[in-house]
Amino acid sequence: MIAITKAQARRFMLLHHGLLGERRYVGQDGIRSFVHHVGALQYDPVDICGKNADIVLCSRVLGYQKSDLSELLYTHRKLIDFFDKNLCIIPTEYFQTFLHEKLSGGYAEYYAQKGGEAVAKIKPLIYELIKQRGHVSSREIDVKDSLVWDWGISTSVARAALESMYFGGELIIHHKKGTVKSYALTEDHIPSEILNAPLPYKTNAERDIWHIYRRIRALGMLWNKASDAWLGLRIKAAGRAAVFVDLLKSDKIVEISVDGIKEPLYVAVEDMETLEAAMRMDEYEPRTEFIAPLDSFMWDRKLIAALFNFEYKWEIYTPQVKRQYGPYTLPILRGESLVGRIDMARKDGAMVINNIWMQDGERLEGEMKRDIDECLGRFCGF
Predict the structure, then answer these.
(1) 141, 171, 189: which is the final residue of a domain?
(2) Edge-to-edge strand ranges of the sheet holding 253-258
(3) Which helix H or strand E contains 61, and what residues bound it?
(4) What does the pLDDT average to over 281-292?
(5) Is the separation of the CB atoms in 17 and 220 below 8 Å?
(6) In total, how many domains does the chain have?
(7) What is the DSSP string of 274-315?
(8) Residues near 138 by beta carbon (within 8 Å), at least 6 away in sequence
């Protein structure tokens, strides 16, 4: 076991996530490198002051533009929309592995049953339209019927059929126009060597090890306790505990004791160089960044609270009368501290700041104000 201070643990997390020091990610190559590093970029369609994936990349990638991510997804297809921890953007070479995960979990069967005969009936029409046009959206399918779909919400049979085929791996997202998705045949756009690639594991036990190891690396440092960091994995607490034992015995992870935290934390051996750099307490250029609500850095909010003394809740699904802050507040990172949160939204061509809340002991004045103003300037430019 390696003993470190909270300050060293905070520094490690920030270095691991590319949030401290000069920006090391640049352009489309930088986007790919970052997504490979953390494993997955969580996607959410809500766009109040930018979509989650874009805000994540804006805080890491020098000169980030939304068109860079779009090209990687829908032109070059080096990244793909699919499911890891909920809906995510993942490296395309892992598509077959995550498709297998969904299929073995009964995902496709669930949605096929949910759609029933109505969905099955129009699938031949969808294939024919894609054959003619190359891709198709629900608006281009002349079927007026509807059914009850996710969240108990009524939706068109056309949309349900497209989503059901997407969940089952028959279709991928060809492109998006706003919130409207156009779908194409998977086999037409994903290379056969990826679709036919062997899985990175052979047994269910190896599968659990592979997925949990990826989640540890996604956060950089993680503990073995209930956490949103495990969402999307079909692994119960006992199975997760067995995986941690196996990873320790095989020297793939290192146990970390952080001053003031009872539970041990774990770091991948692959990331020990970064931990050693954090323990040296070298000088790094401090930055001020706005952090996305579903940033992998924030996936375990109890861990963030323990390390950074910063309680955060994404209140978008909290009734307005029960909200403490706002529906889409972004944590403000300054240097090695989370110093507050900001609520802003685009309106009539401007970015409107609804409110800024500073942490106890922090004041929005002097260098603090100048740093946040500079961050706002960059963010508004994005």
Answers:
(1) 189
(2) 2-4, 253-258, 265-268
(3) strand 61-62
(4) 92
(5) yes
(6) 2
(7) HHHHHHHT------EEEPPTT-GGGS-HHHHHHHH------G
(8) 156, 158, 159, 162, 180
Look at the pTM and tell me if it is higher than 0.90: yes
| Tokens 């996936």, located at residue | 299
Tokens matching residue 191: 């290379």
Name the residue among 308, 359, 372 with its Cα closest to residue 13.
Answer: 308
- In order of 42, 85, 299, the CA distances from 19 in angstroms are 17, 22, 15
Do 250 and 213 touch, CB atoms closer than 8 A?
no
211 found inside a domain: no
Q: Is residue 352 domain-resident?
A: yes
> Structural domain of residue 307, as residue ranges?
288-381
Tokens of 119: 């969905």
163 is a domain residue:
yes
pLDDT tens for 93-134 read: 999 999 999 888 887 788 878 888 888 999 999 999 999 999
Query: Which amino acid, residue 37?
Result: H
140 occurs within a structural domain: yes
CA atoms of 98 and 84, how far apart (whole Å): 7
Distance CA 331, CA 340 (A): 6
Q: How far apart are the first and last CA of the chain?
A: 43
